[in-house]
Structures are given as C-alpha cells and as structure tokens.
Amino acid sequence: MAAEAVTDGLIIVDKPGGMTSHDVVARCRRLARTRRVGHGGTLDPMATGVLVIGVGRATRLLTYVVGVGKVYRGTIRLGQSTLTDDAEGEVTGGADAGHVADAEIAAGLAAQTGEVDQVPSAVSAIKVNGVRAYKQVRDGKTPELAARRVTISRIEVSAIRRSEPGLVDIDVEVACSSGTYIRAIARDLGARLGVGGHLAALRRTHVGDFDLEQAATLEELAELADPVTLPLPAALRRVFQVRDADVEETRILSHGGPLEPVGIAGPYAVFGADGAPLAVVSERGGKARAEIVLVGAS
C-alpha cells in the first residue's frame, strides 16, 4: 500500500536533551515520510524545549521563524568555566564563588540587558576564515569571534542557590532576539565577577508565538497518524497577518504578478479566493510583491 501524502505544515517539538536539532529533523523525516523537513533555529544537544520543524511547503516559512524572539529558562553556574561555556565541556578554570553577593549577580546580569555587543561562544557554528568555530576548538585552536549586536529584553532571576561549596547556581529566564547565546551570558557573568561561569541547564520555552503548551514530544508525535500539528493554512495564520485575495488578485499573484498594497506592515500571508494558501508578500515600491509563492509549489 502506498504511503499517505504528507501534510504541509509545522511540527512544534519539545526537543529532548542529548539530541542535536538535526537528529530531531531526521526523526521527523521518518515520522512525516518525506525528506523535505527542516528546523527553524538550532538548539544545542544539552538544551531542551521548543523546536519548530517545517514539513513540505512549510519549510519555506522557516526563514521567518528563525528571526523571531526567543524565551529561555536556564541555570547559570558560577565558580567554574568550561571549554564550551556549558555543562557539556570540560572544566577549564574558575574560582570560589561563595563570596559573590546577590546584588553583584543582579548588577552583572543587568549589564547584559538591552542592545549589547555579545561575543558568541567559541564552540558556536559561526565560520571563522571559512571553518566552523567549534571545529577549530576541537582541533586545539582558539578562534577569534567578532562581537554581534543582540537585544536581550530581560533577564529575570527566580532563584539563587549555594548548595555546593564554592559554587553558585542562578535560575534565570531570558527573553532575547535571535542570535543571542545564553551560554555567553553565563560566561560573561562569571568573567565580570572574576569567578568563571557556565550554563548548567537550558530549556527554550518560546519561539515567537510558539510555546511549550503547543509542543509535543517525539514519543507523542510517533503515536499520531500525521505528525504535522499545524497544517500550512494554520501555520500561516499563526506566523503572519493575513490578507484574503479576490478572484482577480488570486489570478495575478498565482502568475507572479504584484497586487495593490493595503497598508499591512511587514511580510503577510495571502489566501486565494478558494481559501487556499497563495503566497507570502511584502509591500515595497508601491506594490504588494510575493516573497514566496505557495500555490502550485511542491
């Protein structure tokens, strides 16, 4: 018997620890019975939480998902620096953090909020002279990464624990722009306080409007006949503002032509006269022009 046709859309996965984002994509390819699967923003193997997966035509939406804001819950450990700036790397230094006051922690985190120039972790996937930074670290090199401007809207401390001699664990929630490294926040706090620091745990709770309440584990998805939890029309309505086209507008846009603008800011989704997804457009140069045409795509 032939496999049923895959549903185009998004899968909101609650990623488990110990898997790479590419591991999750591979699993979703098997569940959705198609190779046309991608993810909308990497999570490190140690991290858990919201990972947006696109299937079929919805993979074309992932470029918009990647750039949205994120929210994380994590634990920063003061008193130890690691090679990877998180708990997966070997300890490379540190100092007794028992004397660090709560007020110093708060001030150190406050200094990292707003628009800041953040140096990514040395084991990031950023390329330096054409080679991934993490590969250079594995080869015993120390890549020099340029600072990047990111926006960290808030860092809220929910608990400070001093349960082990010389170590301080800080539970935080961070709301930030795409491209922010939570590991770097931990590293920089430890450096500022002179005791070293790394990220001990991380869970992503929000990717734009997607959150853990909408996410399913891989085990839960495996029980479904169709793992796509947000078919393409629903996914478009979740990610974008929406415009409904009439018959003539549907014809024009389906053939790659522009529409008259209606004053919607930013990219938005257009649905055809039959209610089917038609395109993602943006208004520029006095016209509404397609960035992605979805009708007839496969």
Could you give the topology of this structure?
Elements: E1 9-15, H1 21-32, E2 37-39, E3 48-55, H2 62-66, E4 70-78, E5 81-82, E6 91-93, H3 102-110, E7 114-118, E8 127-128, E9 131-132, H4 133-138, E10 148-161, E11 168-176, H5 182-193, E12 197-207, E13 210-211, H6 218-222, E14 230-231, H7 232-239, E15 241-244, H8 247-254, E16 268-271, E17 277-284, E18 287-293
Helix pairs in contact: 3-5
Domain module count: 3
Which fold name corresponds to the CATH topology of the largest domain? Pseudouridine synthase
How far is the N terminus from the C terminus?
22 Å
Number of helices, where a helix is a run of at least 4 consecutive DSSP H or I residues: 8
Question: What is the second-level CATH architecture of the largest domain?
Answer: 2-Layer Sandwich
Strand-pairing-aware structural class: alpha+beta
Q: Uncertain segments of ≥5 residues (pLDDT<50)?
A: none
GO molecular function, one term: tRNA pseudouridine(55) synthase activity
Domain tRNA pseudouridylate synthase B C-terminal: 183-224
Catalytic activity: uridine(55) in tRNA = pseudouridine(55) in tRNA
GO biological process, one term: tRNA pseudouridine synthesis
